[in-house]
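Hey team,

Filing this mostly as a record. A colleague (T.K.) asked me to run one chain through the structure pipeline before their review meeting, and I want the input and output archived in the tracker in case anyone asks later how it was produced. No errors, nothing strange. Just documentation.

Input sequence:
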Amino acid sequence: MDFPLTTFPITQEKRDFPSSSGEMFGDYFAASRSWSFKKTDLLDARARRIFEGTALAVASDAYPFHMPLQAKAGPYVTADGHQMLMMSSYDYLGLIGDARIDQAAIEAVNQYGTSTSGARLLTGTLDIHRKMEAKLAAFKGTQDALTVSSGYLANLAVIYGLFGPSDRVIIDELCHRSLLDACRMAGVQLQRFRHNNPQSLRDELSKASSTNRTLVISDGVFSMDGDICCLPDLISLKKEFGFFLMIDEAHASGVLGRTGRGTDEHFGVLTGDIDIWTGSLAKSIPASGGFVAVSQEVAIYLQHASSPYIFSAAMAASSVAAISMALSILHDEPERVSVLRRNSDFLRKGLQQLGYDTGLSQTAVIPVILRDEATTALFARKLRNYGIIAAPVMFPAVAQGLARLRLCVTAAHTLEQLTFVLDVFRQIAEE
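Output structure:
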């Protein structure tokens, strides 16, 4: 099924959509400006690449980032007074702007205000926090769940809260940056295995180690490539080697499985075979925050020992209510997941038939790998002139030479809109 949404006429007429660089930087990147970053400066030599690359993009009116949206997101957004087709939103289930979620958030603000003004351990816990977390645990099939203010902090909460220098972490080389940052902060011995390669993981596990515990980490769906982790292989190795297993479901929740539960449902494995689940509440679930789904024992410990939980302000009531309502909608409308899968398959197949490299994609995250960074930025600029927003992703988010556009399909996109996108990609390829 297609879900109701507000549309505007699709046209292939090219228009001049300016980049956001003027509003962002003013005349900072004027042609006469140059930089000399010394190792003793506040901005040292590491800044040179950022400033020189940004200056080049500004000069070409192709700066692709920080586009200020002027209304709620969805299949269409408003930017610089223009309506544009959004093709890089994490709103996988098409729930942003759903009247039921908006109303739940409004009612929560009316009852609880805009802030808890406290951390969860002290005065920041509302009764709806625990009700929502119980709902999350039921959704994920775990004994308990706790929430923090972002998915990034959820990964920090677990790794920094549970592990330290006497432990080792073996992580898929393409896992999200938040997981690597958490490992560095925890001071664990860090090893990487080749992407989705069980034999490489086995080799790393077999290396001598004097550490007490081993944690293996993978994304459920990889955020830059859109492929799915080899979870059954990870579980098999877990049973053989006895390590702990953590899966980040940021891009898998609401995307994989018949009901959107995630990677475990996709493969038909037992949720309990994984020790730690984390994820985002700002993607398929249209709110803000991150979750940790674990056993009750681990949850109790983290509620008293995890820095992001006990030293950061509690999630606002409006987000809590939005999460709870979104989970109810997903429970009642699992067909959103199948529509998302249909739309993803349609766009991916169409791009491949046009000769574009979509990498390893199996899900709603569809990279269009163009490799060269300048080419990628200019391609995003051309798409913008057709009224399409597609986010470019470059080093260090991906390896050098693998720059890409990252398209994200949602259940709210119609096949007409996706056909329009494919036709624009065809025209640009022919130019």
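Quick notes for T.K.: Residues 21-92+335-430 form a domain with the Aspartate Aminotransferase, domain 1 fold (CATH 3.90.1150.10). Residues 1-9 have pLDDT under 50 and may be disordered.
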